[in-house]
Amino acid sequence: MRVNVNDPRAHRTRSYLRSAFLELAAERGLAAITISEVARRAEINRATIYLHYPDLDALAADAMGDAVATVTRLAGLCPLDAPPESAPAPLVDLFTHIAEHAPLYARALGAEGSVSLAVRLREELAAALLARFSAGARPTVSAGVPPELHAAYLAGALLGVIAQWIGAGLPGSAADAANATWRLMAGGAVRG
Amino acid sequence: MRVNVNDPRAHRTRSYLRSAFLELAAERGLAAITISEVARRAEINRATIYLHYPDLDALAADAMGDAVATVTRLAGLCPLDAPPESAPAPLVDLFTHIAEHAPLYARALGAEGSVSLAVRLREELAAALLARFSAGARPTVSAGVPPELHAAYLAGALLGVIAQWIGAGLPGSAADAANATWRLMAGGAVRG
DNA sequence: CATGCTAAGCGACAGTCGTCGATTAGTCGA
DNA sequence: TCGACTAATCGACGACTGTCGCTTAGCATG
Question: Which of A47, A185, B33, B104 has the fewest Cβ atoms nearer than 10 Å?
């Protein structure tokens, strides 16, 4: 990002690049997208891309920023004291959002996806949960558990479930998946 | 893997390639390793590598097979009915193993790591846990939760915690990290 | 030991990547 | 409207990738 963010030329160029990337991402897996191809599709010189993004991962992260923000926002909205029987509404919304964009998430988080994107999503998710802990009620059951580890546990579990759900072809409804996940989060996942 | 597995020439070549890869992995991040460099280090012709592995990820997976197997084995040994206060011994061993090979796991699972390796680890971990469910006691608290989702939840949570623990510089002891993780798994991670 | 099989070596190919210096052209303020 | 600034273009570079056909050489069987 060496160029001026406010220059309309730069703004246009980045917009074209994001659109071209998302077009290609809808057609093939993320791993099959090349810098050259994005440049051709966007009708932007290849060298110009490097004025805006250090690599393709950064462009992918920018193009998928809205999706990532939605996931972290919904996760951060979940009340931590909801009853174990039924998932809080934001968690259901989160799974609904995933289902609506399943091809994109499958490609971004699957074996042909992007490491840096997956790592970023996990870290931002953990950060959102950590902020939620600071802002209010942290479950008393986790006394002695470092909050960072606690947040990483939940973020990893959520992403693990999402990956499995997508990989299995989205069996059941979003509410079913959310309820099952919430039950494990609230009631424990071992020793029943 | 187009070549004969039993031919001593092929066996030697693969051994050289694995060693060269692990040497390079100890020196720099996985993302900074190239096929050409492995070939030079192993003193094997670059084209020959393609006779044994479709890409660098496959070579990485082969070279790190022992490490992955250790993690899945230890995870599969955990008794699911251990008391929440202290983690079962295999889980402590798992965190000890991670700590002993922290640089390798940090590079393999971090932002400069390998997607396919991370995905493979998560899937094999989930498969090991699923096998454990079939073999015996599945917690009754998870009634109504599909076993595949349950296994993915635990695998994701464990990898999330491991990534956080490594990223934070291995704070505390392996037993501390294992105990905190087990407490969340056994007692629930929300609604305390 | 001689012969057939095949792994490994070798050189070449087109394509991609990341970078560079020099040029063109779009923006904005005076 | 003119001029300074700078985003974008262009062509080129060395390096890496994946693949190919051909040759060399190590292994195993008779």
Answer: A47
Asked whether the beta carbons of B127 and A127 are under 8 A apart, the reply is: no
User: How many Å from the CA of B36 to C1' of D16?
Assistant: 7
Report d(CA A2, CA A20) in Å as an integer: 21
Q: Which helix (H) or strand (E) holds A158?
A: helix A147-167
What's the Å distance between residue B48 CA and nucleotide C3 C1'?
25
**Chain C nucleotides near the protein (CB, 7 A):** 6-12, 15-21, 26-28
**Using a CB-CB distance cutoff of 8 angstroms, which residues of chain A are in contact with residue B150?**
180, 184, 189
> Cα angle vertex B93, ends B90, B95, to 5°?
115
Among all chains, which residue has been given the structure tokens 């060269």? B20
Nearest nucleotide, C1' to the C-alpha of A46? Answer: D9
- Contact by Cβ (8 Å): B66, B49: no
Interface contact flag, A145 B184, Cβ < 8 Å: yes
pTM, entire model = 0.91
Q: How does pLDDT run along chain A (192 residues), one tens digit per residue?
A: 678 778 999 999 999 999 999 999 988 888 889 999 999 999 999 999 999 999 999 999 999 999 999 999 999 999 988 899 899 999 999 999 999 999 889 888 888 888 888 999 999 999 999 999 887 767 766 778 999 999 999 999 999 999 999 999 999 999 999 999 999 999 899 975
